[in-house]
Automatic annotation (TrEMBL):
UniProt protein name: Catechol 2,3-dioxygenase
GO molecular function: catechol 2,3-dioxygenase activity; ferrous iron binding
Segments forming domain VOC: 5-118, 146-266
Subunit structure: Homotetramer.
Keyword Amino-acid biosynthesis listed: no
Length: 304
């Protein structure tokens, strides 16, 4: 019984056409469905039906979807989440285009998390037979290969960490705590496979999105992404820079609605025997932006 990965992020955007340009032309995602004011998108190296849903009207997170290893696991997750005290309902095949039956959980942080196993397989752009390393017809914009992780905010990081650990079997790769003599949990970076994080959360408002991130191959792909942001006048939050936390490389930027996105490269490998790394608030600027060792307060305050 395990969670495999972040499958989809569903966000609201103020202007669907403007955001469609951003996710399609700048990031390079492909449209797989366009129905009822919702645009379903997929990156070139993803196999399942979609990984991003844009819905017109407002800004911020509608829900997150995480894919589980087997359909049979869903019963057990339902029992565990209910026992934890979370609100859980069954979701039906077709509630999300291409996605089968699953669970819809209201997290202690008030975010909606969907768990599912069955999802329509579209395959990636290079196929499974003697594949090219990348689509030979070329990529649009950055050509992001896949989604990587999300970071959300919660009033109670301890409770949310307990939920992800006890109900979903995630482990903490990194903790951000109040200080050397203050073990108050300010943030947690948690994984379900071998990435440094599949979800992270920091203390803040309930139910908000700090960012969702796309994987890019390496530092030079990240710099090229920066060039494309400039060509397309995409507002940059910060980067290119190195994260102390997770050791990843990053650029944060905004979609036209103001949702924060990230391109993320590198980072170490975790696993079941990984021991949690701890950062203290007095080193938080270095933890988040190791290169510049400074943080604009808006980086922490602006959420959607
Ligand atoms: C990351 C990451 C915050 C730190 C963010 C770190 C919001 O996004 O990918 O490691 O404090
Ligand atoms: Fe991130």
């Amino acid at each position: 019984m395990s969670v495999i990965r972040l499958g989809y992020v569903h966000v609201r955007v103020t202007d669907l056409a403007a955001s469609a340009d951003h996710y399609r032309d700048t990031l390079g995602m492909d449209t797989v469905a366009d129905e009822d004011g919702r645009l379903y998108l997929k990156s070139w190296d993803e196999h399942d039906h979609h990984s991003v849903v844009l819905e017109e009207g407002g800004v911020g997170l509608v829900k997150l979807g995480y894919k589980v290893a087997e359909s049979a696991d869903l019963d057990e997750y339902e029992t565990k989440a209910s026992a934890f005290g979370a609100r859980v309902e069954r979701m039906s095949k077709g509630d999300n285009i291409g996605v089968g039956d699953g669970l819809r959980i209201t997290l202690p942080s008030e975010h909606t998390l969907e768990l599912y196993h069955d999802v329509e397989y579209l395959g990636n752009s290079t196929g499974n037979w003697n594949p090219d390393p990348w689509p030979r017809e070329g990529l649009r914009g950055i050509g992001v290969p896949r989604l990587d992780h999300t970071l959300i905010t919660t009033e109670d990081p301890v409770l949310l960490e307990r939920f992800f650990a006890e109900v979903l079997g995630f482990r903490a790769a990194e903790h951000l705590v109040g200080g050397p003599d203050n073990d108050e949990l300010v943030g947690s970076w948690m994984f379900c496979g071998e990435q440094p994080h599949d979800i992270a959360f920091v203390k803040g408002e309930q139910g908000k999105l700090h960012h969702f991130a796309y994987h890019v191959d390496d530092w030079s792909s990240l710099l090229r992404a920066g060039d494309i942001f400039s060509m397309h006048d995409v507002p940059i939050d910060f980067g290119p820079a190195r994260h102390g936390i997770t050791r990843g490389e990053t650029i944060y930027f905004f979609d036209p609605a103001g949702n924060r996105n990230e391109v993320f490269a590198g980072g170490y490998r975790t696993g079941p025997d990984f021991r949690t790394v701890t950062w203290t608030m007095d080193s938080a600027a270095r933890g988040i932006n190791y290169t510049h060792r400074e943080l604009d307060p808006d980086f922490l305050n602006v959420v959607t």
